[in-house]
Design brief:
Largest sheet: 5 strands, antiparallel
Number of domains: 3
Mean pLDDT: 80
Radius of gyration: 18 Å
Structural class: alpha+beta
Strand order of the largest sheet: 3-2-1-4-5
CATH class of the largest domain: Mainly Alpha
CATH architecture of the largest domain: Orthogonal Bundle
Distance between the termini: 46 Å
Order of helices and strands: EEEEEHHHHHHHH
């Protein structure tokens, strides 16, 4: 099984890439981002094997790969739908949608209808927190995203591709660290992780929170 690949981008169009490795072998990989041709990249790979085919799906972080693999365990959800969820909806939003039982968010992904969304929530409600233990480190060189405008409750003034990658990565890590620290603090006060996570995530999306102490205060205020 292939789990990780390093190589040079020969071709990229926002749906797949051709990656040349030092061994002389080139791999065709499904990838939802447009990567700079000629650049070296490092991708986590989900290797899907069927009776009549094999497919490689590329991800920037280990937790995205693990979320994709978890989605594949849901009855009626195939690789294309799972990949669409991770790529078009995003890791944090998929996790939050499952936690809050928000089918509408899940159906934003092409190929995911109400029935599939309901099944995802039913099957993964008690498992989704496990994927958060995996690393969110983005160890690939700069990636040019597809340029879709970021929309939703956390709409940003810039397109994803217009934000420096280092700033986007730092923001993700800092955002998640604040939530993790808040969960730990609230658990010491007797609250469950499930209780804290949904509220903390909602507050982070709606407000400008820079410290765990701020988030703990707001979470406890609403309990």
């Amino acid at each position: 099984m292939i789990g990780h690949i390093n190589g040079k981008i020969l071709f990229s169009d926002g749906s797949e890439i051709l990656l040349a490795t030092n061994s002389g072998i080139g791999y065709q990989i499904f990838c939802s981002q447009v990567l700079p041709e000629g650049e070296q990249v490092s991708l986590y790979i989900a290797h899907v094997i069927k009776e009549d085919s094999q497919s490689l799906f590329g991800f920037s972080s280990l937790r995205e790969k693990k979320l994709f693999e978890l989605l594949l365990t849901v009855k009626g959800v195939g690789p294309k739908s799972a990949f669409s969820l991770v790529g078009s909806v995003g890791f944090e939003q998929v996790c939050e949608a499952i936690t809050l039982e928000n089918r509408k968010i899940l159906t934003l992904a092409p190929g995911v209808g109400n029935r599939a969304a309901a099944q995802i929530i039913l099957d993964l409600a008690g498992k989704i927190l496990t994927v958060k233990m995996y690393s969110d480190k983005y160890d690939s060189p700069p990636m040019e995203c597809r340029g879709d405008q970021v929309t939703g409750e956390n709409e940003l003034p810039l397109r994803a591709a217009e934000q420096p990658l280092s700033l986007r990565q730092a923001g993700r890590r800092n955002h998640q660290q604040i939530i993790n620290d808040t969960i730990m603090a609230c658990k010491e006060l007797g609250f469950s992780e499930q209780q804290v996570l949904s509220r903390a995530t909602k507050i982070m999306r709606e407000g400008d929170i820079s410290k765990p102490e701020q988030l703990v205060h707001l979470v406890l205020k609403g309990m």
